[in-house]
Amino acid sequence: MKKTIPQLISERILILDGAMGTMIQQYNLTEEDFRGERFTHIPGQMKGNNDLLCLTRPDVIQDIHRKYLEAGADIIETNTFSSTTISMADYHVQDYIREINQAAVNLAREVADEYTRRNPDKPRFVAGSIGPTNKTASMSPDVNNPALRSITYDELVTAYQEQMEVLLTAGVDAILIETIFDTLNAKAAIFAAQQAMDVTGIEVPLMLSVTVSDTGGRTLSGQTLDAFLASVQHANVFSVGLNCSFGARQLKPFLEQLAARAPYYISAYPNAGLPNSLAQYDQTPAEMAVQVKEYVDEGLINIIGGCCGTTNEYIAEYSALIQGAKPHIPVAKPACLWLSGLELLEVKPEMNFMNIGERCNVAGSRKFLRLIQEKKYDEALSIARKQVEDGALVIDINMDDGLLDAKEEMTTFLNLIASEPEIARVPVMIDSSKWEVLLAGLKCVQGKPIINSISLKEGEEKFLSYARTINRYGAAVVVMAFDEKGQADTFGRKIEICERAYRLLVGEVGFDPHNIIFDPNVLAIATGIEEHNNYAVDFIHTVRWIKQHLPGAHISGGISNLSFSFRGNNYIREAMHAVFLYHAIKQGLDMGIVNPATSVLYTDIPEDVLEKIEDVVLNRRPDAAERLIELAETLKNTTANQTQSPAVVQDAWRQGSVVERLQYALIKGIGDFLEEDLSEALPLYDKAVEIIEGPLMGGMNKVGELFGDGKMFLPQVVKTARTMKKAVSILQPIIESEKAASHCTQVAGKVLLATVKGDVHDIGKNIVSVVMACNGYEIIDLGVMVPAETIVQQAIEYKVDMIGLSGLITPSLEEMVHVAVELQKAGLHIPLLVGGATTSKLHTALKIAPVYNAPVVHLKDASQNAGVAARLMNPELKNELAEELNKEYQQLREEKETTEKNIVSLEEAQKNKLNLF
Fold first, then answer.
1. Region label for 785, one of left (φ > 0), alpha (ψ between -120 and 50) or beta (otherwise)
2. Which residue of 256, 338, 709, 913 has the lowest C-beta tally within 10 Å?
3. Is 761 among the residues known to form the active site?
4. CA dihedral for 522, 526, 530, 536, sign (positive or negative)
5. Which pLDDT does position 723 carry in this prediction?
6. 419, 812, 861, 863: which is the annotated catalytic residue?
7. Is the pLDDT of residue 255 over 90?
8. Can you give the residue range of the structural domain that contains 438?
9. Quick check: is 812 catalytic?
């Protein structure tokens, strides 16, 4: 019996055919060949409609298939890349798509089966080719109307499903959705494939192939490859790969990235090099084979073929290359929640807390409601943009208002966001109480969103129906703690509903637990009703219970609900939120809908105020609410003695020394007095850069400590970073003038700086740049989101003396390891300086230093760079430093190993102790 593609894929690398279009060009077909006798009446030009040749010149198409099979192809593609009603409408032959697809499969199937009969040990397969169409669902065709779309999600699904049903019933062995340039188009095609397989009852492997449009590795619609993987994570994907765009050499870095992240088999079919000025491909089959051999030798692929410019001669080179080669082994599925906009957001425990911006909600913001009502979308978008700037990692969008067409407004606003890269880079939370609005939102976003929300209040049947649809569209979901009896308000009711929903979602729908986000209802406390006093405590206990009993699930909440009783007193409200979050996050709260611009930190709250707020939040005494209400009135109304008033407290910091004021300004993110305070500080220091190295870095280090202790959250960190950036920009001209006055022209060394790929934060790197430049170093700043291959290339080109890598978020750590590996592969021995909020000496010792044969130095802050750089520039001191680092890192590794062994021993002892009972 003939083996299937899934059976063969782990045994050996499979060969895909080459470019159909390139081969067709060799036949020098005329307009008459494309039309035949049958289509003479159709208006317009028909030449170029390659798919129509399945009907008018089937001999040519079958001859091409035969040539690829002779060349050694295991899989040939049907000539159906454009065989949808959407694409065929350009040639006025959309009514023939069923016939075209049927003929295309018959032609390929006949010769594939012939070659299988000749050699049963090398079975041949047919993949149904699905192109992206000539429309894009994520971008507007009119620059003056960014909300406009030339195609809808539903229109794409209808067209794709019609094509796929024919391909499946005609007998393809796989569906290949290829040359993906817009992920929303691809999501529609995936949805259609699932529908078509359901309708026909025929299940085949689903293969995806993306095309990147620039050297940054993004699709034409702006998504990174990691974000794309999050967007299609819901589907039963067999393989994912890259085709078109570049030649094998240029495609390799992106293929490496894909192979390292995608939990699927990997395919690649690059162009025959890059086109020349006449759009011809000059690379020979032998030249391309040398580059493809690297894919094979490094274990990057399972399927290899060719795209633009490749013919059967190119494919013929592959059989020798793959002989005895080991196919790629897919990586494990991510053990965390993946979300995406244009970029990936990994929700890992070490994130501490994920802030969901709340201001694009017509129910929660009068200003936003007014702007939407008045169609002032530019101003409404500025609110979304401000939230991202303030550190919101996800934006909640809600259009539920009695005077709005919520479905239309949700569609319009999501389409507008797609045209704003600064906003669209983060995922969205589609928030509505109306199912039709949630569904409309799902059809607009190319990333992986969160749906907010569904619940059991309408019963299990409706709940399961909604959940299955959300799962099929590829979104995470917020599940509210409601059921047929109503809202859960006690600990017992909260965990009862959450457990029931979890079992239904995971057991019956097949939901990935990481895509489930429970909202156990943040309810108002201190309302004067005794039953409400324990609401916050019940929520916090529920958070801990969910983490212990519902593995993989996340917890969120609308934090502002907690303080509803104190509306009008923003200070008390924000202080309550800070206290609540501090305690809930310690128990495992993952995210919450919060104003990212909130300014009250847990550590800011005076002790007497903190005590009264914690009494209320933690329900520590029966009169807690009355005491807090009295305090709130005092803060609000007292004029004679306002020592506890937020306004006076905020003004009091201005009485401290200039160093204290600068550090306070940084920690709080207050930039209003920087000009004044920096002018006062300048005479106290010999050089302006010493202010950066002294009080400013002191403030940033304090921010790092608070963030690490869970007393400060990422939006607040971003706010402080912007203040630091402003301070540095004020000092920059003075630093430059001091440098010029010193007549220092000798370059101490060349330093390449980069924020690694996947990270857009550059504050720390910019500070390092200033400090190093002031110490005589020439700086080559590559900016943010810099891929490893660019770092390697630029390091070689500029002949740098050291490389500085920066990163703020956790994925940056993995990317830094990748950069070190690539530097090692390139045979470089350039010292590496590593810094950023998530980096640590331990991580450097365990992960980065072992993969790179040059000094790797972890630097806690920018002030250390110049001293370390000076040692690295002196050969003798460099060797000393290398020895010190080796000893220190080895000690850290041994301590880590000892600790892990002790933990294992302790766990075993505890198990043995339990067994005695």
1. left
2. 913
3. yes
4. positive
5. 83
6. 812
7. yes
8. 338-448
9. yes
